[in-house]
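Review form for a predicted model. The reviewer records the input and the model, then writes brief findings.
Reviewer: anonymous (R2)
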Amino acid sequence: MIMKKYLYLSLIPESLIASLLPPEDFGIYLAVGTKKRTRGEAIFFEIDPDFRSDYFNLADIDKRCKPHSDGEPKKTVYLSIYRVLENIPLSALKNLYLVTDDGRVLEIEKREYPKNEKDDLHIYQEIAPVTPFIASTLNPVDFCRFITDKNHPVSVPKLAFVELILNGFSNDPDSSDIRDLPYSNIDHLKDCLIELQQKKGKLTKTVTRSVNSALFYRTIKNGFFIGDHRDIFYYPFPSREELEDKHYAWWRSAQTICFRY
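Model under review:
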């Protein structure tokens, strides 16, 4: 029997992987392996199987990604671990998958981003190819275009990131209660937001240069974004009601287990 081959863009770490496993099985394997001796979160996209590239060597996939002699499917064949996101066209991206470190997989389809933003301030966790924690006066679409603008002295060709909640800080960081915001060094975050509000024309402020701590799912404001200076894809994170109703096992796991970059 001929097994279907899949291509995946993993974001943590950034890599292009071929596999004979369908997305859910692939996510479980990334998180816990085959003998349940490892644990690690994962974020990945399925890539259009018709994707072709002059940058990546895809010619020998059939030779490298084939069943083992006992018929067991080949689980991972790493095709690239460098400048991967940059060299995959956005049009090749399919659904996004979020995997908790005990192997629960949540599939998210891309949607049109609703342009009804009313908040003055935003906080973004960049996921790939860099991982700073950034405060900004820009909405997600404008933020992505700003960070990927090659005319700026510091930019990246493409960016994957998530917007997080700020509660009252989004409009009044000087006097708002932090409530249940779980971010480390909240006073520094507050100072960054106040500076953005006071310095007209300043669009972004780095809160933390590289984040290695947890991203709690309950802090996601709207969803995940991936794009360049021209095109942006939006993958909406389900509402609390939808998570509890349709994805309870994943949500329960995600409440206690979180991504670590």
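Findings: The two ends are 38 Å apart (CA to CA).
Further findings: Residues 76 and 258 are 23 Å apart (CA to CA).
Recommendation: see findings above.
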